[in-house]
Automatic annotation (TrEMBL), chain A:
Membrane-protein topology: Multi-pass membrane protein
Protein species of origin: Micromonospora carbonacea
A Gene Ontology term for the protein's cellular component: plasma membrane
Family in the record: Belongs to the binding-protein-dependent transport system permease family.
PROSITE patterns referenced in this protein's UniProt entry, alphabetically: ABC_TM1
Bilayer-spanning residue ranges: 39-65, 98-123, 135-156, 184-206, 246-269, 289-310
Protein name: Sugar ABC transporter permease
TrEMBL record, chain B:
Species for this entry: Micromonospora carbonacea
Organism classification: Bacteria, Bacillati, Actinomycetota, Actinomycetes, Micromonosporales
Family: Belongs to the binding-protein-dependent transport system permease family.
One Pfam family recorded for the sequence: BPD_transp_1
Domain ABC transmembrane type-1: 74-265
Residues spanning the membrane: 14-35, 78-102, 109-133, 145-165, 186-208, 247-265
One Gene Ontology cellular component: plasma membrane
Bilayer topology annotation: Multi-pass membrane protein
Record's keyword terms, sorted: Cell membrane, Membrane, Transmembrane, Transmembrane helix, Transport
Protein name per its UniProtKB record: Carbohydrate ABC transporter membrane protein 2, CUT1 family
Length: 330, 279
């Protein structure tokens, strides 16, 4: 089940995609057995209560609070309409956040994912010790963003850090990449990539290995070189995984918090600040909860609208293919 | 591909190995710097950041390992991750069972609602969640982290498990019911045991996510005695900002459980990730 494909798949849902199970049998058959309602209630209640109370309700409250000037205590009373939203878009810090998000997304799509794809193709070759390489490349993914960030703070700490001495050895002063507004965002990107490229590599590798060998062999027999085989056989078949990875990467970048908070706190002079960091600053440091809620809702809307458009335009053929195939099997 | 001693092929392999080794070094060297740095004092670190410690100074590690704080944070992380994962997987499995094998009005609507839940990051909900937890008096209470974490993990878990439950043939259920099995009995005695691989996968994913969570424990726990490892590591960095060697030792020790878990559950984790994305 792909994350975004759930929405249309379930909407189409119903008998067409249902495997003939007891559910459908029952629907066609006699009346529901007594006690079925009770079973439904008992099985659904825990998940529904948790989800509605702790996920849905907070989102609803956040959108409500975003219309008020509110410090987070008592009940919001000072209704300001959309002022918090217009304030956000007029705020240079928030506009900077949007810009940083865009830069990070572009870097991820043009650098991080292609590198991950290249390494996945590399590790698909018969190479001695490739399982060890795989193990190492993926390992940073299990480390928390916080530990990763603290480690790299120290790696790049002036005078005692590794980065500093390597930089001195190379004759530059890269030891200060976190202190320089021009380089800090790239430093953040590098460290985010350090942690996450292994994840994407593994996804690509898993997809690559599910492609039948015969396809590439056939292409080679027909005279395709390795590059042509990759370009015209492998890459199109990796399409669904690539499209999902792009999706995950964009959504992840919109929500980036831990890494930036610990690495730089958004500084110097807001040069590495993200939307989530600004939200956190206003919400938990300055207690402007109404304004911070508006930023949360903008984050959510950006993710949601992106997901919706991406779903409709890019992922559509993947899910359509999946459904058509199912139809063919009948 | 035959493994002839073709020199061109060998040269190509060499280049591939070289690329892998360079990438591997980029991954390993910072961690290695941390491990060795923990055995140095700060004077050694400034003179010789990468070389072997001379002399070896184990006190940074031993101080932390004999301090109560580190073990308490480790314990808190374990408690929260394990309880949260258990609650989440239990609730998700029950809901996924109903979504997969019962037809009822509003089923697709509810399921879509869970799907949309995938789009809600913590960051969007954190402020009202904080206010809500405060009014429920769950601040400085592990449940204040466990329950929201479980709730946010539900969507992806329900989706993966429902998909898996659907692959179990209807005949199995019919046979069970003919043998006098109730819905509960079928779920507990047949479905869950059959779904063990899927349950293991979602549990491993949930454990990693919970273990790494930072924002929620950061706002929920003002009382230091509840801090989890990520919060503790960040605070330790602030507290000993001048003592690089000591902070390195703390970071390294906090990585050990995660890497140890990875060594044990690697297969489960990877199959889960590729499974959840490929569908």
């Amino acid at each position: 089940m792909t994350r975004p494909s759930t929405v249309p798949e379930t909407r189409r849902g119903g008998p067409a995609t249902d495997p003939p199970g007891p559910g459908t049998a029952r629907r066609r058959g006699a009346r529901p057995r007594p006690g079925r309602r009770r079973v439904l209630a008992i099985f659904l209640t825990p998940a529904l209560v948790l989800f509605l109370l702790l996920v849905i309700a907070p989102i609803v409250v956040a959108s409500y609070a975003s219309l008020y000037k509110w410090n987070g205590f008592n009940l919001p009373q000072n209704f300001v309409g959309l002022d918090n939203y217009t304030r956000a878009f007029g705020d240079p810090t928030f506009r900077g956040d949007l810009w940083h998000g865009l830069v990070l997304i572009v870097l991820s799509l043009t650098v991080q994912l292609p590198v991950a794809l290249g390494l996945a193709m590399l590790l698909n070759q018969p190479l001695r010790g490739r399982s060890i390489y795989r193990l190492i490349f993926f390992a940073p993914y299990v480390l928390s963003e916080v530990t990763t960030a603290v480690l790299f703070n120290l790696v790049f700490s002036p005078n005692r850090g590794l980065g500093d001495s390597i930089a001195r050895w190379l004759g530059s002063d890269a030891g200060t990449i976190f202190a320089d507004p021009d380089t800090v965002l790239f430093a953040v990107f590098m460290i985010v990539s350090w942690k996450y490229f292994g994840l994407y590599m593994m996804l690509f590798l898993a997809a690559r290995q599910s492609i039948p060998k015969e396809l590439n062999e056939a292409a080679t027999t027909d005279g395709a070189g390795p590059w042509q085989a990759f370009r015209h056989v492998t890459l199109p078949l990796l399409g669904p995984t690539i499209r999902i990875s792009v999706f995950l990467s964009v959504i992840g970048t919109i929500q980036l918090f831990d890494m930036v908070w610990v690495l730089t706190g958004g500084g110097p002079i807001h040069a590495s600040e993200t939307m989530a960091v600004t939200m956190f600053q206003y919400g938990f440091r300055r207690f402007e909860v109404g304004y911070a809620s508006a930023i949360s809702i903008i984050m959510f809307l950006l993710s949601f609208v992106f997901a919706l458009i991406y779903q409709r335009v890019v992922l559509r053929r993947d899910t359509e293919g999946a459904i058509t195939n199912q139809g063919d099997n009948r | 591909m035959t493994s002839t001693a073709n020199p061109a092929l060998r040269a190509r392999r060499l280049v591939l190995h070289l690329v892998c080794i360079v990438v591997g070094a980029v991954i390993v060297v910072p961690v290695w710097f941390g491990v060795l740095g923990g055995f140095k004092d700060n004077g050694q670190l400034s003179v010789n950041p990468l070389g072997l410690p001379d002399p070896w100074v184990p006190s940074n590690y031993t101080d932390i390992l004999t301090s109560e704080v580190f073990w308490r944070q480790l314990g808190n992380s374990v408690l929260i991750a394990v309880t949260g994962t258990f609650i989440m997987v239990a609730a998700a499995a029950m809901a996924a069972f109903v979504f997969a094998r019962f037809a009822f009005r509003g089923r697709e609507l509810l399921f879509t609602l869970f799907g949309v839940g995938l789009m809600f990051p913590f960051a969007v909900a954190i402020l009202p969640l904080f206010v809500l937890l405060r009014s429920m008096e769950l601040l400085d209470n592990p449940l204040g982290v466990i329950l929201p974490q479980a709730a946010f993990g539900l969507p992806i878990t329900v989706i993966i498990l429902r998909q898996f439950f659907r692959t179990i043939p209807g005949e199995v259920e019919e046979a069970a019911i003919l043998d006098g099995c109730s819905a509960f009995g079928f779920f507990w005695r047949i479905l869950l045991p059959m779904a063990r691989p899927a349950l293991a996968t979602v549990s491993v994913l949930a454990l990693v996510t919970s273990w790494n969570n930072f924002m929620l424990p950061l706002v929920v726990f003002t009382d230091q005695s509840w801090w989890t490892l990520p919060v503790g590591v960040q605070a330790f960095q602030g507290q000993y900002s001048d003592d690089t060697a000591r902070v390195l030792a703390y970071v390294v020790l906090s990585m050990v459980p995660a890497l140890g878990f990875y060594a044990v559950a690697e297969r489960q984790l990877i199959s889960g990730l590729s499974g959840s994305v490929k569908g």
